[in-house]
Design goal:
This protein has 280 residues and is of the alpha+beta class. It has a domain of 149 residues: Jelly Rolls, CATH 2.60.120.10. The protein has 13 helices and 8 strands. Strands 1, 2, 3, 4, 5, 6, 7 and 8 form an 8-stranded antiparallel β-sheet that branches. The chain is globular and about 50 Å long. The two termini are 25 Å apart. The relative contact order is 0.16.
């Protein structure tokens, strides 16, 4: 049995968190791919895993882990029985919790205690002691609610601007982002790297491919038609989808991987989670 369930965070912490999820595997061994993603805070309640990133590096995962933004599709190989409670960290959440540059953690997975001290493992034990997922999400809401005062107004304003730019069109030009900001181009580039873990041009490329991957998986021909002009040609689209989603458009249509099918369930939370999350 492989199960991946998604849950919307409380409304007052949705600027920090994209979604909560509980991933459970009964098999003694399970390996698969997952799409490029934002930063994650993952609590391994049972079992261990190995995470592989687009740069070829891999990291062992156990207990509580902080996973940085990924620049391409990831792979994982886990030993079960396996249970993991995860949190998608939006850029504002990353800034409030870590006070570190996301660019320093791109394509990396590190023990969370290196960033949050041993206190994070107390939260791991709390989660392990929860009797159901409702208690886990209640804990997570409280945890992130405590971080709300750490959100700086200028960070909130900046991330809203970047998210609006990313959502404005399938392949938004960097020049359009610069036009939205009163900061210098150099400041914008530096701040996007710090909060999102990669340059604006690469960020737009990543979301373009993830939107196309989801459209293929959903057989959304109208959206695919609209997205075609965002790529150089069909071959370019196929290469980009494979790099960021870890599979080809054909497989997305007819033989989507087990984990990918489960990830697609996020769309059911549309309206309760960020648009950039439900659309990718």
């Amino acid at each position: 049995m492989v199960s991946l369930r998604y849950f919307a965070p409380a409304e007052d912490v949705r600027d920090l968190v994209s979604v909560y999820y509980l991933f459970e595997v009964e098999h003694p061994r399970f390996a698969d791919n997952e799409r490029a993603a934002i930063a994650q805070l993952r609590f391994l309640l049972e079992g261990t895993a190995n995470l592989g990133f687009a740069d070829g590096k891999s990291y062992s995962a156990k207990d509580s882990m902080l996973v940085g933004p990924s620049t391409g599709a990831m792979s994982f190989d886990l030993e079960g029985p396996f249970r993991m409670f995860g949190v998608g960290l939006l850029p504002r959440g990353w800034a409030a919790l870590t006070n570190r540059s996301a660019a320093d953690f791109t394509d990396k997975a590190v023990p969370a205690q290196k960033i949050f001290t041993d206190e994070i493992n107390k939260n791991l034990e709390i989660l392990r002691g929860c009797k159901d997922v409702s208690e886990m999400t209640d804990w997570a809401d409280r945890f992130f609610r405590d971080a709300l005062p750490k959100v700086k107004p200028e960070i909130e304003q900046f991330t809203k601007m970047v998210d609006a730019w990313l959502s404005s069109e399938p392949s938004p030009p960097v020049s359009a982002l610069m036009e939205r900001s009163q900061q210098s181009s150099r400041q914008v580039l530096r701040t996007v790297n710090k909060l999102y873990g990669m340059a604006p041009k690469y960020l737009a490329r990543k979301y373009r491919a993830l939107r196309a991957a989801r459209a293929y998986a959903e057989h959304n021909e109208a959206e695919l038609l609209a997205l075609e002009d965002a790529f150089y040609d069909q071959s370019h689209m196929i290469r980009e989808i494979k790099f960021f989603a870890g599979t080809t458009p054909t497989k997305l249509r007819v033989a989507e991987g087990e984990t990918a099918k489960l990830i697609d369930q996020r769309k059911l939370l549309k309206g309760e989670i960020p648009t950039l999350t439900s659309e990718t």
